[in-house]
């Protein structure tokens, strides 16, 4: 067998090894170079296509809502708050409050803590607590009575609601001091809340005032009807009382007239008896004429 410049072909050496041991130039006329390089490209391309087909084939059977829900559950927070902003109807020398509904979005027990940049202006109850899985609680934030209006009715106060997962048997009074400290290694989620003031003359304030006035008017109307009904019952009771008093007076008069007749008769009979006795005495005491 002959081949190559020396007229002999290397026995027992593959074409790839021959190329590696020979020149580094790409074999002329072959688009991917040597047959070994071509084999590697074909193998990798086929493997990539197989993997891609496998992924597409299995993903097309996964319902889109399930994938979206999985994504939402993965990206959801421990708790959600409604409303997402604290709104206070601002009035001078009056307290006002805003309620926050905090919902636990997990199957774990979640502890929360409320912080604010102006702790002297607000009264928060409860400011710390534990929410059971899928449960909720109400946090009432009270704005203390203010003595002056803020500039342009703008408020720069902010609230921070921190939350973390705790053990099921944990009591709120037994929470460690570093529960909401990031340096303790706990996973802490934070939710920031802004504060806004609603002036009494604002459209929102006026609409709520109108609703309040409407409810007040309905209450006044109901109270008026109740008062009128009570007055009618009072008048009816007074009429019955007068009627009973009149009947009682008539009975007294009848009793008096009956008792007077009996007393006069007794006097008359007594006088007759005295007169009769006197006459009989005269008759029996006069001397006989012989």
Automatic annotation (TrEMBL):
Coiled-coil portions: none
Biased composition (Polar residues): 213-228
Key words of the record: Membrane, Transmembrane, Transmembrane helix
Keyword 4Fe-4S carried by entry: no
Residues of the signal peptide: none
GO cellular component: endoplasmic reticulum membrane; plasma membrane
SUPFAM superfamilies linked to this entry: PapD-like
GO annotation (BP), single: endoplasmic reticulum membrane organization
The UniProt record lists the keyword Membrane: yes
A Pfam cross-reference name: Motile_Sperm
Transmembrane segment boundaries: 260-280
MSP domain residues: 78-198
Chain intervals for the UniProt region annotation (Disordered): 200-243
Family from the record: Belongs to the VAMP-associated protein (VAP) (TC 9.B.17) family.
The protein, known as: MSP domain-containing protein
């Amino acid at each position: 067998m002959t081949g190559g410049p020396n007229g002999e072909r290397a026995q027992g050496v593959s074409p790839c090894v021959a190329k590696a041991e020979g020149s580094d130039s790409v074999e002329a006329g072959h688009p991917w170079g040597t047959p070994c390089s071509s084999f590697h490209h074909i193998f990798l391309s086929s493997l990539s296509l197989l993997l891609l087909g496998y992924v597409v084939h299995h993903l097309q059977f996964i319902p889109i809502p399930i994938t979206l829900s999985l994504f939402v559950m993965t990206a959801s927070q421990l708790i959600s708050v409604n409303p997402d902003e604290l709104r206070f109807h601002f009035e001078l020398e009056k307290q006002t409050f805003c309620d926050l509904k905090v919902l636990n979005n997990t199957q774990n027990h979640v502890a929360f803590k409320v912080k604010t940049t102006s702790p002297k202006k607000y009264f928060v109850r409860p400011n710390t607590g534990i929410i059971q899985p899928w449960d909720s609680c109400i946090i009432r934030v009270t704005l203390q009575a203010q003595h002056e209006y803020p500039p342009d009715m703008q408020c720069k106060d902010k609230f921070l609601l921190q939350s973390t997962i705790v053990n099921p048997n944990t009591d709120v009074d037994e929470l460690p001091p570093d529960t909401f400290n990031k340096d303790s290694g706990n996973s802490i989620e934070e939710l920031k809340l802004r504060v806004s003031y609603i002036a009494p003359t604002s459209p929102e304030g006026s609409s709520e005032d109108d609703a309040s006035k409407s409810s007040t008017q309905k209450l006044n109307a109901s109270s008026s009807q109740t008062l009128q009904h009570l007055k009618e019952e009072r008048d009816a009771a007074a009429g019955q009382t007068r009627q009973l008093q009149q009947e009682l007076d008539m009975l007294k008069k009848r009793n008096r007239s009956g008792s007077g007749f009996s007393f006069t008769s007794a006097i008359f009979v007594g006088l007759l008896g005295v007169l009769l006795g006197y006459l009989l005495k005269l008759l029996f005491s006069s001397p006989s004429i012989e």
